[in-house]
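hey can u run this one w/ cytidine-5'-diphosphate bound, need the structure tokens asap thx
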Amino acid sequence: MAKIKHRALTSGGTSEKPAKRPRVAWMDESDDEAHSHKINGAEALKSLKFDAQSPRPTKKQKMAGAGPSGSKQAAMQEQRKQLPIALGRDAIIQEIKDNDVTVLVGETGSGKTTQIPQYILESGLARNGMIAVTQPRRVAATSLASRVALETQSQLGSLVGYSVRFSDVSSDKTKIKFVTDGMLVRELMGDPEMERYSVVIIDEAHERTLRTDVLLARLKGILKKRNAVPTEGKGKGKERAPKNPLKVVIMSATLDADKFSSFFGNAKILYVQGRQHPVAIYHTSTPQPDYVDAALRTVFQIHTDQPTGDILVFLPGQEDIESLDKSLQLYAKRLPQDAPGILTCPLYASLPASQQQQIFVPAPKGMRKVILATNIAETSVTIPGVRYVIDSGKCKEKRWVGRGVGGGFDTLLTRDITKSSAWQRTGRAGREAAGSCFRLYTEDAFSALPLSAEPEIRRCSLVASMLQLKCLGQDLEEMEFMESPDQEGIAQALMALYLLGALDDRKHLTDLGRRMAFFPLEPALSRAVLASVEFGCTSEVLAIVSVLSASSKLFVDTTDSRESAREAHTKFRHISGDHLTVLNVVRAYEEVLQAEGGADGRKASRAALKDWCVRNYVSHRCLTEALEIRAQLREYCERQAIDWRASCGDRVGEEQAVLRSLVRGLVQNTAFLQPDGRYKQVIGHSIVKIHPGSSLCDKKVPAIIYDELVYTTQIYARGVSAIPRNYIAEVPLLKHKGS
Ligand code: CDP
Ligand code: MG
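ok here u go:
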């Protein structure tokens, strides 16, 4: 492995530092020399012998330190008192008491998310209702709920709970509920004034997700209603007070809080004085196009050259994390016997709950923990013990590509981070002591980064939010947002909802639209479920939709097992393409689930199921999650008086019915074959190719539907099925197409 040259940030680089971030100290030139010599010294790495096994921790060692035993609990309570926010507790509560809206800014790790809800609870401010704490990501919502439950010495789901899509761990006793911002928007449909909450905390507001912006816009209206002083009645004081007032707290880790304050009529801004130790910053001397490889080498450079302390690596997504994880484990095995070992901990959005808590457990003695995270570890989750940060400079961003009515698509793109993210990532190295941050990009590249990200409302599809707001009697295009969506985005969403039959030609919500919004699914998928009622195949469509809604992919297909995976997948393959292939997998899995248990009627053991999945190169995690999702979707169907057992019976009828249902939902995801073998969108202008991972990859069929488009060197359709052209013509608004 060649070494990567890192140059320390020279003092000139400090001009890039936002004026209000004084707590990060910078190395001067002389320190720089000394340090970079140490980092760059080729000898250290060369002398590393990669020839012996390193001790891996046993399960028992891994679990050491977990669980709130008596002394642990005491230590945790002591730690709570030491948090920077603890000093400001009374002042903060007083401000929240005195104001409808409070904006709270504090450095990551200062205790905002875990402490503020508890302070509010203890203060009695939430006597009449619950406290909601929103998070943009589900991993953050669930892991923070676990932490606060631990701190309050309660069972998760009683006093403290969470609610994220397809998983609700709360009860009548719940007072503090962590929710994804998307979940709280959904709740609005059943509780438009958020009456069950006394306090709504919008956390991580700086991320400006679309759902957060929708919530902020709605809260403004709700506050006016709920906090208005009744004009009726002659009474004074208490009698004139609003019946069920609402408090809103907006929390952010970045300093640009003025926007939130002015949106809420110059709401009070409180700053929590954080604690930040100096962090030395290093940039690479040359650009590193292969950031995963660069990260790998840097981890070992730190591991061999630097004193103890955990390493936090920021990567854009799960695939890169898994790939680096593999390489690290491979090389770690070849560390000399007496060298400290490496313990890797991945952290990304779809990480199963069972692995989440592992991140917070200290590494066993003599081991160095290497956390591989997406930007989730930037501000929402603070991991103790980190002294070194490796920043790939990349993140994944959801973006609507090729905007325009009918055209374009939402896709996840790997892109450069912003300066604001770079500073946040750097800060993670200096939480507990002085640290170092290794940026895998040059100083020039850093200077060229944009300052902060564009809010999602300006760059993502508005379809789902527009539908939800319609159900609340609100027109997205007329609402007051912190930043308004652009006309193109609005036109695209209106068109999509019209094509789905959710809006009529006067932009009014239809009964169908209301029923679509009821399901916790993308509008396109709920439309397919509703269409399945008409075609008598709800059981089949629910199975497929559940897999599509799971957070991980069904088919396991890594570079080193591609051939065997393909072979294993052949037996599931359906001639029409990927959707019915998915159905075949679910059916085969269910057969194993039922059959393995044998005569005593018990279900198959987890190990047997896992084994079956491994042998067939399908993801056990995806299938387990999909079956849970399906169980929930069945409940939603029951509430809508839909018979989820409805099934076609015969295989030919089934294929037609399922594909027809899917076309109703994926109407915008249809394309016709072109003479050159590529496909052109029926609605929209993109020319697409079938993804190499699809079972239809090298087939030419007259028309296709697909789940999504991915944009790499060209535009690929993923999750593809062949359909007769006339299925498209059957969609009520597309009669002229396809015939
Ligand atoms: O929200 P903010 O970034 O201000 O901080 P927080 O999430 O409330 O975290 C406060 C402290 O609790 C941090 O120092 C974390 O290290 C610690 N914490 C933890 O040890 N385990 C968790 N699961 C969550 C937080
Ligand atoms: Mg927080």
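Residues 112-113, 203, 380 surround magnesium ion (ligand 2) (CB under 6 Å). anyway lmk if its weird
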